[in-house]
Amino acid sequence: EALLPEDCTEWIFPAALTWDADYSPPGALLKAEYSIVPFHQREAEMQDLLAWCEADNKLAVRLYTGVGGMGKTRLAIELCRVVQHSLQWQTGFLRQRQASYYELERFACLQNKANPVLIIVDYAETRRLELTLLLQAALHADSKIRIILLARSALDWWVQLRTANQGVGDLLMSRATQVIALQALGTTAQQREESFFLAADSFTKQLKAPPLLSLPQDLDAAYFDRVLLLHMQALISVEGKATTTGLKGILDVILNRERHFWESHAKAVHLPVSLYKAIGIAIARITLLGGVKSRDEVMEVLDYIPLLKDSRWHEKQLIIDLLHNLYPSSQTGKNANAQTYYIEPLQPDLLGEYLIQQYIQAEI
């Protein structure tokens, strides 16, 4: 289905991905793009966003902030789907790629749109130049445009963006722009319980596991403000293969699931056991880079791993093929020349950050 016109190659519509036990990474069960757990308990936020979209003003911007695992990306994905299917808007996530000051024409497709446009910019804190160009183009467009930025916080990058010229700073300082800290999904014990069991039921169906009837004893813990951690605990409970204690325990179990996944595939291609740790280090380094876009970039990563110093050329090639097959790009779009990842970073972000902490910091 053509979700966007041919000249809009910069937006990626968030079509739901399909999880498959035979080839999908275990962490994919928890990724927003797969939508394994039904969207829930954000009705107030969704109604507020729809009212914001349908307001009369031509251009408006929102920055949503929150630590990893709060549900920012999932909320934005659901909003895209609603406005595209129900309101017939053109919508999607801004494709990630290196920006240049000379690429303002990249957003020329915003001109003369018959339908309103909603654009989501994830990891906004790392994309200041792209945002400047996008906002400049939006200011000169005739169409009705809504832009949502997702970031961990509004720190130096936001201060600098608000001083940009060409009207961008004025826009971000005006009433047309709002900064909103996304609140926890479950603020009451009942809401957390409902979210936990909804996630558990969803994972039970995917894994064909027995129903889960018990709750974790620490459901009132502060770290469960991040819904991703609550759903991680639900997944651990459904599988019933490990016990957890606290935040670190949850992340350890989820990371071990991922490690077993790549080690089982390494065994299948007869990679020496002595190189298994190098796979984890490689994934951590790729995650730290935000993904890699070519086979040559992966080789550069491997060349800096001490464990692979004396390894054979074909062993490095096996690792590259392994990582490419396990974590290929999930970006889609109509522009065949657009940059996509050869190997994506480990996700969800919270899991990727913990992987970096375990592998990279251990080397220092």
Overview of this protein structure:
This protein is an alpha/beta fold and 364 residues long. The protein is 43% helix and 9% strand. It has twelve helices and six strands. It has helices spanning 43-54, 72-85, 128-139, 156-161, 168-173, 189-207, 227-239, 246-268, 276-288, 295-303, 313-326, 349-363; strands at residues 11-12, 59-65, 90-94, 117-121, 145-151, 177-181. The protein has a six-stranded mixed β-sheet with strand order 1-3-4-5-2-6, sandwiched between helices. Strand 4, helix 3 (128-139) and strand 5 form a beta-alpha-beta unit. It is globular and about 60 Å long. Residues 1-6 and 332-338 have low confidence and may be disordered.
Blueprint of the fold:
Elements: E1 11-12, H1 43-54, E2 59-65, H2 72-85, E3 90-94, E4 117-121, H3 128-139, E5 145-151, H4 156-161, H5 168-173, E6 177-181, H6 189-207, H7 227-239, H8 246-268, H9 276-288, H10 295-303, H11 313-326, H12 349-363
Parallel strand pairs: 2-5, 2-6, 3-4, 4-5
Antiparallel strand pairs: 1-3
Helix pairs in contact: 1-2, 6-7, 7-8, 9-12
